[in-house]
């Protein structure tokens, strides 16, 4: 049985949220998520800071973080400020 985890990424962006979200929601990114077994559950922008974003995914344990670490160039190209990223991992109890 596969162990699934929920990953919570918070980070800053260098472009307006609408611009970042259009890339995140694009067909190309959807295909990359599908190919890697990653299910985006939620993405949103902070009510207090329009440059702070949260993304929540579910995937097999380790997959979302490994995908993120292997995809720095396209992630940064979309306006994600790499060094601002905080990742927490959660599992069902």
From TrEMBL:
It comes from the Bacteria. InterPro entries: DUF3764. This is DUF3764 domain-containing protein.
């Amino acid at each position: 049985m596969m162990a699934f985890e929920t990953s919570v990424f918070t980070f800053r962006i260098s472009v307006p949220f609408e611009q970042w979200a259009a890339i995140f929601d694009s067909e190309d990114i959807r295909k990359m998520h599908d190919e890697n077994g990653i299910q985006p559950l939620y993405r949103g922008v902070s009510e207090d800071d329009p440059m702070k974003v949260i993304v929540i995914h579910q995937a097999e344990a380790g997959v979302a973080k490994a995908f993120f670490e292997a995809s720095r160039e396209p992630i940064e190209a979309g306006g994600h400020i790499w060094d601002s990223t905080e990742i927490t991992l959660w599992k069902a109890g």
